[in-house]
Specification:
Layout (H helix, E strand, L loop, with lengths): L3 E6 L5 E4 L5 H13 E8 L5 H12 L3 E6 L2 E7 L11 E2 L4 H12 L5 E4 L10 H9 L4 E2 L8 E3 L9 E3 L5 H11 L5 E5 L7 H8 L5 E3 L2 E5 L5 E2 L2 E3 L4 H13 L4 E8 L6 H8 L3 E10 L2 E9 L20 H10 L3 E3 L13 H11 L3 E5 L2 E5 L6 E4 L4 H10 L7 E4 L4 H4 L3 H7 L3 E6 L1
Bound molecules: shikimate-3-phosphate.
The site of shikimate-3-phosphate has 11 residues, from helix 5.
Amino acid sequence: MASIDYTVRPRGPLSGTITVAGDKSISHRAVILGALARGRSEITGLLEGEDVLGTIAAFRALGVSIEGPHEGHLVVEGVGLYGLKAPVGPLDLGNSGTSMRLLAGLLSAQPFGTRLVGDESLMRRPMERVAAPLRAMGAVIETGEGGRPPLHIVGGRPLSGIEYRLPVASAQVKSAILLAGLYAKGRTTVIEPAPSRDHSERMLAGFGYPVTRDGATVSLEGGQGPLHSVCLDVPADLSSAAFFLVAASIVPGSSVRLKRVGINPTRRGVIDILQAMGAVIEQENETVASGEPVADLVVRAKPLRGIAIPPELVPLAIDEFPALFVAAACAEGVTTLRGAEELRVKESDRLAVMARGLAALGVAVEERPDGLTITGGGFRGGVIDSGGDHRIAMAFTVAGLRATAPLQVRDCRNVSTSFPGFVTCARAVGFDLETTAS
Ligand code: S3P
């Protein structure tokens, strides 16, 4: 498929007010729980990125009638917990690990079998982490070679609740187990080493399903349905806002307002890390939308300093490290990240691809198995390959604002998986950004 390259040229201060794309994690869950509820759910602010469109297509294939999305508005005619139908063929979930893992949990509990596949990147990602606990609940799931997709879920097996201790904090695995737990006999409990994003727990409660939480432990009792349909407003995605938090911090004189961004405490690591580096980020108009805290974020440029990133913030900022590495490369001094080996199994190996790209731009970077050490100093221009990873493509586009010459970022097509309006938002605040088909 044809790709897109971005060329960004350094220029003056960024300014303006933008609303970035809807939250990807919340959008997936809204579609899933909307489909499982009884009756019509209306969702606004939905992310119309390819990942979420993939989840929508999967539920249509499972017999759910869904209207939209039109400008973030989606109407889901929920079929109830027991109303899904066998799909005709395999479900193709594209680039989306969240879709595949969450659906693995839900589909393990259905009376029919399914096969889950994805694009080249998703077909390389680890799935045993989700298959193993689901098997312990009684599911029959086959993974492909090395525990990777395709997933073949046999279905028609009665599930029992378990108490499962996650080796690594993971909202996707936790959510898959909880979705299977809705159908399991007895109680399902997930214990994480540290809390991961809790959108599933919040949203299940919003749909009227009782969930018990205590620190990093979450449980629910099977068979307590139905889920009740809702009207749900999805906040803007802090993971997409992160690129602008970094951009406005590193371009002197900038001031940008990001509207209605989700600031859930289990997601806000990027704000805390940037503030520890000296960034000026203020929260205004704080409110709660559909059970999620939101605020306008106002960010003003300020010289950053390198820090040792506190390990407890790693799961709370797991998707924001590509952007944070760019901030580190512009900061004075050394930034160290440890305990982040999970970054190697995201849409790309984010430690390797970021280290390679930063080094190519003249940044002093040291790669370790579980993190990077970056010495700030700025970038030269050049050509960088995103590795087909949306967040790496956007991170290097931001780096181009501070490069000493034009920076071309290759293979940016997948930006549309999470942030289809990225180029429009970037230009709106003053990026000099050109796109070319390649
Ligand atoms: C997500 C959880 C995180 C994150 C991913 C979205 C979710 O993955 O990296 O982009 O929506 O649950 P893990 O749960 O694997 O850490």
